[in-house]
Every structure is written in structure tokens, then in C-alpha cells.
């Protein structure tokens, strides 16, 4: 496998997302007057900005100077204390809340036109009659096609106030005239549970992509459905999950831990310790649980894995997690922007801090993925570096380690068959998803009577589709790309993408899991239990 640091932005983005996703509400006991009283250090900064504003030879946007200053201050604290500019606050807040007010579609900007991939189930657009494949040309007399709008600009035109109407003109293949729709905006969920289904007759599977305000409610709903289907064991997939609200992680752990078991404790700079314990609310305390983690499972994901591991509950499966043991809280800055500031560290029940070192600066911190890859840790558990001074024992005597992530009970190596550079390029650039959309758009009616279950179990991607994809890429990239060595993997991801566009994220995950070596390991472990 070839690995290049050209993928650094991807992992840097993951790390930044981790910092942004963690938090709550900042609840200072001091009044704002006491907290922000004047002193010489603060006056110095204010006077410098005013001096630049009034006297600098060229016009300067002092707002941008303030942004740079705030970012510079936070970068010298830790990698996860972050500044959120006001233009990003709404998106970040909606993502963590778990919904927004809009019309409820997923879309591509396809050939300078808004092409609907699918409508959100139960959302405003579905109720109105908009369908996958429709092209939205006009919204409230504003022409949307043929313009170089960014996705965010399009979203802003389609979002709006609760119960407000947007009048759309839509082109639909086979219809002689444009169709008119009046869509009343409403709450549209941003799902944090990607998939929930049965892996075997008694093993349920739940995939959580982040810990938002709505996550526990989503999780609880799916857990009840799985129990009705016969689940006595649960595979909780937290791979790639960057974290979120600490309290949500605690609620999910509570579903599996017996009453009064310690979930975690936090400690701030004053040495104040706050402990969190399991309650009587758990509905799955007698069941076996498998937690799937990898190198991008962070923060709240690690709280779940660490709490269960330290209480000798279930089995942690996968690779060493990210290693983030810091807790952030949010403070509004008065102009629509905010800071998520690290205010404490959290510790697992045995007393472990799993925060990895950031003493060499943010760059080295973000580059650790490459260090793990180059050391062979992602392929061989014996390459994981542990310190005897950070050794802890669970109540049943199992040895666990602090100092940089949760080390799984059962190691599963990185699947190299899914790490080909060409394969990654096609996914990251969107070429594969665009190709699938075009294929679906040509014969959408052919899938009308296909159920989700039949698609997952029986639908096959033919060799002809692979050949069409190669022609598609040659026309757009002006070079030949063949899939001789990973044809099966390409077929799998094409089928998964097609399933996503037809049925949603859950179908994508279910298809991908059919060839997932970590899922196979969990199924084997569940049979042993």
C-alpha cells in the first residue's frame, strides 16, 4: 500500500471536526463582569487592534485580525480548543442539535443544476411529491440553474423559517412541462444513527456517526426495534465517530451498565472531580455488547468504549482509538461566533486518561496517523507502544493502558483491500457517486419494485457496469483506469452508493458490511458467546 501525506487535509479535517463536535454550554459560576474585568494584558490587545484600525496605512478588516488573534491564542493551548466563526455557527449548531428547518432533500449540483438524489423520509419534500431524479430549477422566482452557486449557497436558498413556504419549479424526466410545488419548510432530521439492522438471528447492529443532542433518542428507538427482532447481543459501531456531547455518551453507556457502575469522572484545573454513574434506566444490561472502534474513534466514542472496557462489560473490537481525553464547553463571544474551550480532562473508571500528548505542537499531533501507519501499528497489535507506568487493571484483573487511546480487547487490522489510492481518489472526488447517479437516472423506473431487502441480498453489479465506469472515467480524466486487482471492491462500493441513493445511508452501510472483516470478526465472537 502506498501512503502519501497528500491525504493530510483529510485527517486534519477529522481532527478539527473532533474539536468542534465536543462540548456543551459554558456555565461559569463567576459573573461576566468578574470574568472579563479589565487588566493590562487585555488592554494591550485591545489598544493594538484599535491602533491598527485607526492608523495603519492601508484599509484593514479588523474582524479578520480578531479572528486570527483568537485562533493564534487557542492554537497555543491544545489541539481541541477551537474558534467557530459566526458564518459557521449555524451549521455547527444544527449538526449538533440533530435537525434544521428546510425542505428535506439530499442533492447534487449536477451539470449546473440541482438534482435531487432522494427526499428525506417523512420530510416536507416527500410529502409534497418531489422525487429522486427531479431537477429544481427555480425557487421563489429565483433561477437556480446555470449559476455557479456553491452547495452552501443553495442550501441557504432552500432553508428558511419554520412553516414558511417555498415555491419550486421542477423538471422531471418524461413530463412535458415543468412541475410546480409549494413546499412548507419544517424540521428535517440530521441522522446520527446511520444504520440499525440484524447481522444474525440474535446479533443486532447499530452504527452511530456522532453524538448529537438527538443521538440517544435515535439510538433508543433502534435498540427497541432490534430487541423485538430478537437481538440479545449488540454490535455498536463507533468507527470514524469523532465524538460529541459527553452526556449523550453517558446515556448510551447507561443502557449497558448495571446500576451505580462508574461511567467516567472529570477533573478541572482546580482539582474538582465530578463523577458519573449508571442508573436504573438501562434496558440492555443483561445483553452482550461489542464496541467497534478504529483510529478515528474519538472523545465521546472513547468514553463509551473505555467505560464498558473498564467495567468488564462486553468486548472492544478493532484498532487503537484516536486518544482524546479533553472536554470542551462553549462560550458565545457576542457577535455570533463562539469558542469551544478545553475546561477539564476525563478519566475512565479505572482512572485512565487516554489523551495522547500534544507537547510537540498541533502538526505532530495531527500527523500521528501517519506515525501509526508507518510503524505498522494498524496491521500488527504488537507494534502498539504502551508504557508500563500507565498500566491499570479492571475489577476482573484485565490489564488496560492509558496515555493515548483505547486499545481494543480484540485487534482487527486495517483492511488493505479497501485502501488502494485509486479507490480512495474515486470516492473522495465524487466521481463514483456521480457515475452511479447517472446510471440510476437513465433507468430509475427499473428500481421501482425493488425492495431494500431484495437489493441488499440479491442485487448484483455486472461487469458491464464496471466497463461503463471505466469509459466514464476515461472521458473525464483523459486517462485509463482499470480495476483488475480490485474489481470486487469497486462493485461493492458502486452497489453501496446505488443503495444509498435509492434507500438511504442505512443501505449503504449494510452493503459495505457484507465484506467488512471487522464485522466478520464480531459475528464470530458473538457465536462463541
From TrEMBL:
Positions of transmembrane segments: 7-28
UniProt domain PDZ: residue ranges: 89-159
Entries under SMART domains matching the protein: TSPc
Presence of keyword Kinase: no
Pfam families per UniProt: PDZ_2, Peptidase_S41
Lineage top rank: taxon: Bacteria
PROSITE patterns in UniProt: PDZ (PS50106)
InterPro entries assigned: ClpP/crotonase-like_dom_sf (IPR029045), PDZ (IPR001478), PDZ_sf (IPR036034), Peptidase_S41A (IPR004447), Tail-specific_protease (IPR005151)
Keywords, alphabetical: Hydrolase, Membrane, Protease, Serine protease, Transmembrane, Transmembrane helix
Family statement: Belongs to the peptidase S41A family.
Record protein name field: S41 family peptidase
Source organism of the structure: Lacinutrix gracilariae
Biological classification of the source: Bacteria, Pseudomonadati, Bacteroidota, Flavobacteriia, Flavobacteriales
Amino acid at each position: 500500500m502506498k501512503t502519501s501525506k497528500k491525504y493530510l487535509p483529510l485527517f486534519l479535517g477529522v481532527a478539527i471536526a473532533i474539536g468542534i463536535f465536543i462540548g456543551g454550554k459554558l456555565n461559569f459560576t463567576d459573573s461576566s463582569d468578574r470574568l472579563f474585568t479589565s487588566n493590562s494584558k487585555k488592554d494591550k490587545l485591545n489598544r493594538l487592534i484599535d491602533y491598527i484600525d485607526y492608523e495603519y496605512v492601508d484599509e484593514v478588516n479588523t474582524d479578520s485580525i480578531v479572528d486570527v488573534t483568537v485562533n493564534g491564542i487557542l492554537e497555543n493551548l491544545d489541539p481541541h480548543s477551537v474558534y467557530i466563526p459566526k458564518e459557521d455557527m449555524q451549521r455547527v449548531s444544527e449538526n449538533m442539535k440533530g435537525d434544521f428547518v428546510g425542505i428535506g432533500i439530499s442533492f447534487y449540483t449536477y451539470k449546473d443544476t440541482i438534482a435531487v438524489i432522494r427526499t428525506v423520509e417523512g420530510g416536507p419534500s416527500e410529502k409534497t411529491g418531489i422525487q429522486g431524479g427531479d431537477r429544481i430549477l427555480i425557487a421563489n422566482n429565483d433561477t437556480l440553474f446555470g449559476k455557479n452557486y456553491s452547495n452552501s449557497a443553495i442550501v441557504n436558498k432552500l432553508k428558511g423559517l419554520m412553516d414558511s413556504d417555498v415555491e419550486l419549479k421542477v423538471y422531471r424526466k418524461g413530463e412535458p412541462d415543468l412541475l410546480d410545488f409549494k413546499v412548507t419548510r419544517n424540521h428535517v432530521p440530521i441522522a446520527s444513527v446511520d444504520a440499525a439492522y440484524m447481522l444474525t438471528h440474535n446479533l443486532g447492529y447499530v452504527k452511530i456517526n456522532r453524538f448529537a443532542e438527538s443521538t440517544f433518542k435515535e439510538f433508543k428507538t433502534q435498540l427497541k426495534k432490534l430487541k423485538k427482532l430478537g437481538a440479545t447481543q449488540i454490535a455498536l459501531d463507533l468507527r470514524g465517530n469523532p465524538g460529541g456531547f459527553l452526556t449523550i455518551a453517558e446515556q448510551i453507556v447507561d443502557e449497558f451498565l448495571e446500576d451505580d457502575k462508574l461511567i467516567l469522572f472529570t477533573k478541572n484545573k482546580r482539582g474538582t472531580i465530578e463523577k458519573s454513574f449508571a442508573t436504573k434506566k438501562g434496558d440492555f444490561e443483561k445483553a452482550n455488547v461489542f464496541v467497534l472502534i478504529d483510529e478515528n474513534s474519538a472523545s465521546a466514542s472513547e468514553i463509551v468504549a473505555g467505560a464498558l472496557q473498564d467495567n468488564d462489560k462486553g468486548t472492544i473490537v478493532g484498532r487503537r482509538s484516536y486518544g482524546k481525553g479533553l472536554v470542551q464547553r462553549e462560550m458565545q463571544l457576542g457577535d455570533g461566533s463562539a469558542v469551544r474551550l478545553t475546561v477539564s480532562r476525563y478519566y475512565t473508571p479505572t482512572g485512565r486518561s487516554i489523551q495522547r500528548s500534544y507537547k510537540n505542537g498541533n502538526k505532530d499531533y495531527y500527523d500521528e496517523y501517519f506515525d501509526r501507519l508507518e510503524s505498522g501499528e494498524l496491521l500488527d497489535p504488537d507494534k502498539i507502544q504502551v508504557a508500563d507506568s500507565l498500566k491499570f487493571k479492571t475489577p476482573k484483573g484485565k490489564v488496560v493502558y492509558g496515555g493515548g487511546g483505547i486499545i481494543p480487547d480484540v485487534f482487527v487490522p486495517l483492511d488493505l483491500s479497501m485502501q488502494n489510492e485509486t479507490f480512495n481518489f474515486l470516492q473522495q472526488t465524487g466521481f463514483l457517486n456521480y457515475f452511479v447517479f447517472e446510471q440510476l437516472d437513465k433507468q430509475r423506473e427499473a428500481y421501482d419494485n425493488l425492495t431494500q431487502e431484495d437489493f441488499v441480498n440479491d442485487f448484483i453489479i455486472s461487469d458491464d457496469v464496471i466497463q461503463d465506469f471505466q469509459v466514464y472515467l476515461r472521458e473525464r480524466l483523459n486517462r485509463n483506469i482499470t480495476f483488475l486487482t480490485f474489481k470486487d471492491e469497486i462493485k461493492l462500493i458502486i452497489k453501496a452508493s446505488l443503495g444509498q441513493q435509492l434507500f438511504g445511508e442505512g443501505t449503504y452501510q449494510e452493503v459495505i458490511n457484507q465484506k467488512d472483516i471487522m464485522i466478520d470478526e464480531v459475528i464470530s465472537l458473538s457465536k462463541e458467546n
